[in-house]
UniProtKB/TrEMBL annotation:
Keyword rRNA-binding attached: no
InterPro entries with a match to the protein in the record: HTH_LacI (IPR000843), LacI/GalR-like_sensor (IPR046335), Lambda_DNA-bd_dom_sf (IPR010982), Peripla_BP_I (IPR028082)
Keywords assigned: DNA-binding, Transcription, Transcription regulation
CDD domains: HTH_LacI, PBP1_GalR
Coiled-coil portions: none
SMART domains: HTH_LACI
Domain HTH lacI-type residues, every copy: 2-58
Protein name (Swiss-Prot/TrEMBL): LacI family DNA-binding transcriptional regulator
Organism: Paenibacillus roseus
Gene Ontology terms for molecular function: DNA-binding transcription factor activity; transcription cis-regulatory region binding
Domain of life: Bacteria
Length: 335
């Protein structure tokens, strides 16, 4: 029996592209030539979608329940808008698909979550702020991880390429002449945040890493302000900083201004998330536009694809866009 992987290999595209074309996902941006090639290969292989295979009745979509597992309180989520946008994308896609219900399970970041999620048909884990136990999670059905990929061979995941993001930020700052670059970021319960991890690794590879230029705390603007004040008081201030979020960058910029340090003339700043206020700052903030809502929407599509019968795990990497504004001292490329 032909599989999605067979079609993807012959058509020269990814498994997820094949799945979305065969399930008539009109939101997929793909050329008509590619779409027809996939359909032709599927027909030649006599592929039948799970819902059309004999003896396999597809569940009425109106009765499907999706659960979303978060490791943030509502207040914490309000601070870290990245995760809020992911959740909103999940809810919007569920509503658009006509799903019966969406349940939110908020788990403590300090304890392993109990795997009791009622009668949901699929679960979406946003982040994974706990001691991951794949055997425990494998007892559940139809799982998708967003913003993490604890086991790419066993579970679907929707992620962004953090390594590429950090590489772009650092290459940009180095090209502008900066070699003394600091990092301001938040902590995670399960280990280093990927932005922190890749900052250290890439800076070490370039021979530019200085552990004294790492400032790790919380994720809110007040923490960005506090951490930058700490950096200023230490002396030997880096000439540029990459911040793990726009909220941190905003607090950091405010601290620099209070200390009479000019941005970007004395210190350049790059943020992450491209929240709305970032372009209205003075100076406007250089940052990365993250399609967090799309990540949530893709997670729902993957859950439904699993429910429809797909068994092969898929990882979707959602692209980011580097938005260059005045805070890093470079010519503006996008407002």
């Amino acid at each position: 029996m032909a599989t999605l992987r067979d079609i993807a290999k012959l058509a020269g595209v990814s498994n997820v592209t094949v799945s979305r074309v065969l399930n008539h996902d009109h939101t997929l941006s793909v050329s008509e030539e590619t779409r027809q090639r996939i359909l032709t290969v599927a027909e030649e292989l006599n592929y039948q979608t799970p819902r059309n295979r004999k003896g396999n009745k597809h569940k009425d979509i109106s009765g499907i329940k999706i659960g979303t597992v978060m490791f943030l309180t509502e207040d914490e989520e309000e601070v870290d808008r990245y995760f809020q946008f992911i959740r909103q994308g999940i809810e919007k896609e569920c509503m658009a698909a006509g799903l019966k219900s969406i349940e939110i399970f908020r788990k403590s970041i300090f304890e392993h979550p109990e795997m009791n999620f009622g009668d949901v048909d699929g679960l979406i884990f946003i982040d994974r702020s706990y001691n991951f136990n794949d055997q425990l999670v494998k007892q559940l059905k139809h799982i998708v991880f967003v913003d993490s990929s604890p086991d790419v061979e066993s579970f679907d995941s929707v992620v962004i390429d953090f390594e590429r993001v950090v590489q772009q930020a650092l290459n940009h700052l180095i090209k502008l002449g900066h070699t003394k670059i600091g990092y301001i970021g938040g902590s995670r319960a399960y280990g280093k945040d990927p932005r922190h991890y890749f900052f250290e690794r890439i800076m070490k590879e370039k021979g530019l890493f200085n552990p004294e230029h790492l400032y790790i705390g919380g994720w809110c603007s007040s923490e960005g302000n506090r951490l930058m004040n700490e950096a200023v008081s230490r002396g030997n201030l880096p000439t540029a900083f990459f911040a793990g979020s726009d909220q941190l960058a905003i607090g950091a910029v405010h601290a620099l201004k209070e200390a009479g340090i000019r941005v970007p003339e004395d210190v350049a700043i790059i943020g992450f998330n491209n929240i709305e206020i970032s372009r209205f700052m003075s100076p406007p903030l250089t940052t990365f536009h993250i399609q967090a809502e799309l990540m949530g929407r893709m997670a729902v599509k993957l859950v439904l694809d699993q429910i429809n019968g797909r068994e092969e795990p898929i990882q979707v990497v959602v692209p980011t866009k580097f938005v260059v504004r005045s805070s890093c001292g470079a010519e503006i490329s996008e407002g």
